Amino acid sequence: MSSLSSKPYQVGYALTPKKEKTFILPSLLSHASQIGVTLTKIDPSKPLIQQGPFDCILHKLYDSDWKQNLQDFASQNPNIPIIDSPGSIEILHSRISMLETVSKLRISNIGVPKQITITEVTNSENLGINFPSIAKPLDADGSETSHKMHLVFEKDGLKNLPLPFVLQEFVNHGGVIFKVYVAGKYSRCVKRKSLPDISEEKLVNLQGSLPFSQVSNLTAAGGGAEGCEFEKTEMPPENLVKELVEGLKEELRLNLFNFDVIRDIKNKDNYMVIDVNYFPGYSKMPDFESVITDFLIDVCSKR
Ligand SMILES: O=P(O)(O)O[C@@H]1[C@@H](OP(=O)(O)O)[C@H](OP(=O)(O)O)[C@H](O)[C@H](OP(=O)(O)O)[C@H]1OP(=O)(O)O
Ligand SMILES: Nc1ncnc2c1ncn2[C@@H]1O[C@H](COP(=O)(O)OP(=O)(O)O)[C@@H](O)[C@H]1O
Ligand SMILES: [Mg+2]
Ligand SMILES: [Mg+2]
């Protein structure tokens, strides 16, 4: 570990203004500086090789100029860790390839919901997907539209949705989702409220599709598991989460990611991964400041 008696580690970060606001918090900067880590903003429009020196680079920018800038830096500084490699991050930019990594792991009791890519909507073909389902934009590239989803209750509901999208079967899961945050060797599973279950009875009265922003209209209470139910919801088995984390780390070759897991209400031993995100909102995670600082020290000290 670095200490104040030696030179602090210099971490350069290149983030969108939104990410900077939610991640580079005063509490993180002050905790990091106390134990010998300085975080410095990179100007992504200027050559990285003219900035620094850095002991490690942290980034979440995807444009081609930035990727070129990173590559130029990496070829001149092969020993400076880049968190993470743009090639590895890219796997998470398609909602198909992101979940293929989960299927590859072949862990019993862990799966993904059935899904297909829709590039055009025709009347005739049988899709082989049950309703209700969710239409998710194929690209998960952090853009505003990449999170705009629709619940689809019948085939007719597929018309007029923005293409291309992934059509994924909706899995009733008791209105609770588990989010597993990974930062290097650290991981932490937390629970959050999710969409409410859709019963057969409810479904008969539902037509077409509904944007997520209106999903609260589905329940009088306005959301997933309420108060007490949420508190009572058991966490997934620790060893299962661990196996999933280790498997995904090896498959994805990423340090900073989280994934969303739901438990099938019909078979409580079965879990499904529905989403994997690069460099998620860590500040919502317990002990955010120390977890991230310890991770940065680990990365800088290993080079
Ligand atoms: O902004 P936040 O803190 O809500 O973080 C978002 C994440 O929320 P979470 O940590 O899972 O609660 C969010 O996770 P979800 O997709 O909502 O599961 C994404 O990682 C999002 O990044 P992007 O827009 O997909 O590039 C993340 O957005 P960025 O902060 O990276 O823009
Ligand atoms: N297959 C599914 N079955 C049930 N609920 C789902 C399913 N997929 C997504 N959801 C719900 O929709 C939310 C958003 O979907 P997600 O794939 O995580 O998109 P995003 O990348 O925008 O977070 C999830 O947090 C969960 O509440
Ligand atoms: Mg999600
Ligand atoms: Mg996501």
Automatic annotation (TrEMBL):
EC number: 2.7.1.134
Catalytic activity: 1D-myo-inositol 3,4,6-trisphosphate + ATP = 1D-myo-inositol 1,3,4,6-tetrakisphosphate + ADP + H(+); 1D-myo-inositol 1,3,4-trisphosphate + ATP = 1D-myo-inositol 1,3,4,5-tetrakisphosphate + ADP + H(+); 1D-myo-inositol 3,4,5,6-tetrakisphosphate + ATP = 1D-myo-inositol 1,3,4,5,6-pentakisphosphate + ADP + H(+); 1D-myo-inositol 1,3,4-trisphosphate + ATP = 1D-myo-inositol 1,3,4,6-tetrakisphosphate + ADP + H(+)
InterPro entries: Inositol_tetrakis-P_1-kinase (IPR008656), InsP(3)kin_ATP-grasp (IPR040464), ITPK1_N (IPR041429)
Domain Inositol 1,3,4-trisphosphate 5/6-kinase ATP-grasp: 109-297
Cofactor note: Binds 2 magnesium ions per subunit.
A GO BP annotation: inositol trisphosphate metabolic process
A molecular function (GO) term: magnesium ion binding
One Pfam family cited in the UniProt record for this chain: Ins134_P3_kin
Enzyme class of the recorded protein, top EC level: transferase
Cofactor(s) the protein requires to work: Mg(2+)
Record's keyword annotation contains Cell division: no
Positions bound to Mg(2+) 1: 260, 275
Cross-referenced PANTHER family: INOSITOL-TETRAKISPHOSPHATE 1-KINASE, INOSITOL-TETRAKISPHOSPHATE 1-KINASE 2
Oligomeric and partner information: Monomer.
Name by which UniProt lists this protein: Inositol-tetrakisphosphate 1-kinase
